[in-house]
Amino acid sequence: MSLSGSYSTTVKSPMGDQAGTFTVVDNGDGTFSGNMAGGMGSMDVEDGKVDGNTLTWKMNMTVPMPMTLDCEATIEGETLAGNVNAGAFGAMPVTGTKTA
C-alpha cells in the first residue's frame, strides 16, 4: 500500500478546527517529503520518516507565531490519524481522508 497521496485534514487547534491538505510523497527509503497547506499558508515537511504505516515529521510554522511542530500520524487504508505537538500548546489531534 502506498502512503503517497493527498489527504484532506483537520487539526483541532486552540484557535478552532484548521482544515488543510497534507501531501505525502513516500521516497521509498524510509523517508517522505511533502507539505501541509491551509488557511494559514503552507509548511514543508522536514525530517519526514516512514515506519510501516506511521509517519513522523516536523514543520516550521510562522503564522500566527514562529514554532516548530512535531507531528506523527498513522495511515490505515484511506484515513490518517495522529497528533501535531505544538510545544507549550500541547498535542492537537489531526485526522484526514485520502483524496488522491
Features:
100 residues; nine-stranded antiparallel beta sheet; globular
Would you write up a description of this structure?
- The protein contains no helices and 9 strands.
- A 9-stranded antiparallel sheet has the order 4-3-2-1-9-8-7-6-5, with no helix packed on it.
- Helices cover 0% and strands 70% of the residues.
- It is an all-beta fold and 100 residues long.
- The radius of gyration is 12 Å and the shape is globular.
Summarize the structure.
With 100 residues, this protein is mostly beta strands.
Order of helices and strands: EEEEEEEEE
Give the low-confidence spans.
none
Strand order of the largest sheet: 4-3-2-1-9-8-7-6-5
- Mean pLDDT across every amino acid position: 94
| Number of beta strands | 9
Number of helices: 0
Shape, please?
A: globular
Strand content: over 45%
